[in-house]
């Protein structure tokens, strides 16, 4: 599936690719996703963080995963939504009960 260019020129200089697999530690739970999946909403916080502009300043855990101080169940919903948008761009964010 073709995607709009989401990476900055500095990201390309760092050797980052749109379809790199990004490992994320969301509140202690690990997720993996394609960079292009995480960056597909251009002005989102995830796109800003992972577009390469801030690559050197990302907080990483002891195994090198990008650390996000978020509730894992909430991040899982966001990631599921982004994956659904790759298949069906009009997909809506799922509604779920608060995990706490």
List the helices and strands and how they pair.
Layout: H1 9-13, E1 21-26, E2 29-34, H2 35-38, H3 45-50, E3 66-68, H4 72-87
Parallel strand pairs: 1-3
Antiparallel strand pairs: 1-2
Q: Your description of this structure?
A:
It contains four helices and three strands; from the N terminus they run H-E-E-H-H-E-H. By secondary structure, it is of the alpha+beta class. It has a three-stranded mixed beta sheet. The radius of gyration is 14 Å and the shape is globular.
SS-based structural class? alpha+beta
The strands making up the biggest β-sheet line up spatially as 2-1-3
Report the order of strands and helices: HEEHHEH
Q: Quick one: overall form?
A: globular
* Strand runs, count: 3
**Helical residues, percent:** 25-40%
Rg of Cα set: 14 Å
> Helix tally?
4
Mean pLDDT: 82
Low-confidence parts lasting 5 or more residues at pLDDT below 50? Answer: 1-5, 10-14
How much strand content do the residues show?
15-25%
Distance between the termini: 36 Å
Q: How is the main sheet built? A: 3 strands, mixed
Essential attributes:
three-stranded mixed beta sheet; alpha+beta; 15% strand
Short description:
This protein has 100 residues and is of the alpha+beta class.
């Amino acid at each position: 599936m073709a995607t709009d260019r989401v990476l900055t020129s500095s990201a390309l200089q760092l050797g980052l690719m749109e379809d790199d697999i990004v490992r994320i530690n969301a509140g202690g739970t690990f997720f993996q996703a394609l960079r292009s999946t995480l960056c597909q909403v251009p002005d989102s916080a995830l796109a800003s963080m992972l577009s390469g502009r801030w690559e050197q300043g990302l907080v990483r855990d002891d195994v090198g995963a990008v650390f996000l101080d978020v509730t894992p169940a909430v991040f899982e919903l966001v990631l599921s939504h982004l994956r659904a948008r790759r298949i069906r761009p009009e997909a809506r964010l799922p509604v779920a009960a608060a995990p706490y």
